[in-house]
Amino acid sequence: MLESDFQKQNRFFLNMGPQHPSTHGVLLIVLEMSGEYVLDPQPVLGFVHRMHEKMAESRPCGGFMPNTARMDYVCALPYNHGYVSLIERKTGIEVPKRAEYIRVITSELNRVASHLLWLGAYLLDLGAFTPILYGFDDREHILDILEDITGSRLTYCYYRFGGVYQDIDDKFVDATRAFIQRLRKRFVIYEKLVTKNIIFIKRTENIGIVSPDMALRYGMTGPNLRGSGIAYDVRKNEPYSVYPEFDFEVPVGAQGDCLDRYMVRIREMEQSLRIIEQALDRLPEGPVRAKVPKNIKLSPGDCNFAVEAARGELSYYLVGDGTSTPYRLKVRVPSYSNLSCLPELGRGILLPDLVSILGSFDLVIPEMDR
Amino acid sequence: MKQYFSEIYTGGKSLVEGLGVTFKALCQPIVTVQYPREEIDITPNYRGHIDLVLDPEKNTFLCISCGMCEKSCPSDCIKVKGKKMEGEKKKTLVLFELDFTKCSLCGTCVEVCPKDALEYSQEYNLAAFSREAFHFDILKRLEERRT
Amino acid sequence: METISILPPELIRMLIAVIIIISFLFLNAIMMGYLERKIAGHVQRRPGPMEVGFHGILQMVVDGVKLLGKELLIPFNVDRTLFRVAPLLSFTPVILPLLVIPFSEKLQARDLSLGLIFIVSMGSVNVMALLVAGWGSNNKYSMFGAMRAVAQSIAFEIPILLSMLAVVLMCNTFSLKEIVGAQQKIWFVVLQPVAFLIYVIAGVAETNRAPFDLPEAESELTAGFHTEYSGMGFSLFFIGEYTNMFIVASVATVLFLGGWHGPNLPYGEYLGVVWFFLKVYFLLFLMIMIRWTYPRVRFDQLLNFAWKYLVPFSFVNILITAVLVKL
Questions:
Q1: Domains, in order of start, for chain A
Q2: Burial class (CB in 10 A: 0-12, 13-18, 19+), C127
Q3: pLDDT tens-digit profile of C10-25?
Q4: Which residues of A touch B46 (CB under 8 A)?
């Protein structure tokens, strides 16, 4: 469709980023274009590389905790969760039940916060300015709730090996229940303002279709994979923590376009609320922190732990050498694989569609660069 | 043809509904806070940078300058120095510095402290023009607090 | 005593009118900027500008002074003449249509018998500014913006003209004053609801306002045609945009909302201008609300919308009007 001689001659390059409003951070995409058609988008990474993996190799394993929250700052608690669970699996620390419940509740709250922020940012990409502030309004409630128990608002360092930093109280439970009620009412507003909007549907329907085969080839995970119709969720397929005890669904999309990815995230928020409600109902009593040796020794050999972060499967791989410092720590982040299919997906589409696709992937650049 | 008109109808309806949402929001009260003029009370659980705990009975610090926090800090941002005063058996704290530019507020130092001599401060709107302004002298801050 | 005048009285009248209109134009831009920011704020549940003056009422004035004080930055390798000329080009054609708009029965600078045509032609000149700005900036994003502006303007000129034509058919004149006069009994919005709707939609597109703000689509083209502009160049574009909005809204008022006509009140003859401005600012308020509600349409969708929906509907509308008028 694009291979006329005229268009071949009139190709040019356009640097989208690293200071472009819709690349969300410092991602550079070099676009080879012809008119407003994108012929070949090539992402260029590495603008915010901070050597997190190397840092893990240079300090005792406890010292890496704050770093985990700084890879994906939008959804930091699942990153905490993955790392503490990794060390617990490696060293065989038993975690009290109550602590696991608290971890699930806070992780799911964080997931909802992340999806709310994405909702706003995506609509901002599509040119609507108001939903982001409604999303922030709701997200702020979550941050207040989490701040009250974790002590920070964004880069949490709440989980500890063998438990959590401090117990939750009645105030937290009440605030969370109130928030769930509130958000369910707000979903009606989002539906009216965004989901049903004809312009929004036209901008997302049949745009950026990722076939199930393609999604598997590029190793996409999370809502992006589920949008393509594959019901893979680490919480269900490879259950960790106390997730098997809860009743929740894994929403999937039909054909893998931007609208499907959007709908999956919206329905995932509802499922997260369900999980939180169940966990609050069944919250067991007991300690929130197990006895943990002061000097954690990582035995020789490797170990892997995967969790479902807001953007997809997050997997930590650790090789120990008998000391308390990891010999190697590899973090497999979801955004990186999710972005990888852009060059194939973005061939021969319009520039506004590229922005729409990029937004629908829910990328966090510092997570990719680490 | 039927689809053409039904699309106009549903599309138009969705647009009017969207306008209804924003119009309703226009009439509702604002939810933000005009920051420098008014401030939200911060939760007592907020974890700012560390401070020495002031013992209300002795009116001094609880720190025994064991250096556990210094050793446990993943970013090497704490500097503790104790000195043996004349006629005393234990060391007395003479220097406690925090390089807040490196601190990532993980809280390891507070948890590792054997005497619970460290606490989190409530300061959150910190701003300065130089890096050196964030090299806090925690001991001096304690001196200022004791009366 | 006889007045001795070097200039013909008609010229003096014009000069005064132009001075009043230019000063009004700046006032309108300031007011619209403030309104937009305030409404956007409250739509998003935040207060908007609050710091300068009572509830931030002087914010736009301060911003204007700030923009005046800024350096006129000319980027490397741009076409200097075109780059400088573009803001002026966007500013001039928006002054002229204001001369023929009847603000009230007697408040009109000049009643052209072809007033409507004059306004439409000036509206077409406006897009030149966007093209020149985009072309002169030597920036690919600006270029995209300029090209989009031209295509969009051409596509939406037709439905605008056709919807106007429906009204013209009904009252047999292009003079704005006479069109308003014909609405003494009943406003044309009642008789021509389809034409009104088409005019408002196309008008929003013509002024490059969201959801049709493709020439400056922030999330795609950073800032589109005015990416490279700073200081006064940038603010002239903005004044041009707001004045353009005002013109579109006043033409809609004149054509469909009965211009200066209002309910019968004592001193009614002096209240005409109040009614006129109330109607205009209601339309502008609607435009602002639309901007802060909807996502942006895609470029081809916009053109599709113009050609597939607006143009056929306005043709049918004209046909029906013509038949009914003839009967």
A1: 5-369 (1.10.645.10)
A2: buried
A3: 788 788 888 888 888 8
A4: 147, 151-152
